[in-house]
Amino acid sequence: xxxxxxxxxxxxxxxxxxxxxxxxxxxxxxxxxxxxxxxxxxxxxxxxxxxxxxxxxxxxxxxxxxxxxxxxxxxxxxxxxxxxxxxxxxxxxxxxxxxxxxxxxxxxxxxxxxxxxxxxxxxxxxxxxx
Length: 130
Fold this sequence. Notes:
Layout: H1 2-5, E1 11-19, E2 26-31, E3 37-41, E4 51-58, H2 68-78, H3 100-112, H4 119-122
Antiparallel strand pairs: 1-2, 1-4, 2-3
């Protein structure tokens, strides 16, 4: 209904991929909010098992809706009475600065490796053990 079509406020194109447990065919519904839509069998076959995936191609001026905090806030606000779980997959990058003294220790260790001998260098004519 109206809630679904509100996706076009933030997206240029909406694609809905759906698979019913009672039907062998997985279908794709696609529209660009131009008054037309298409429905077709998914050429990839059954990739969902069952359920629905919704793909939004976000408008340039709506990129703020891609921020994790905005998505979380929207889900919490408007899905209070949902009986099915909503999963939000996100990533987080943490930068940790390494103190210089640890870097110096690493360089010292690499320099010490030059003095090491391997068994091959010790005696080239010696028989090698299997």
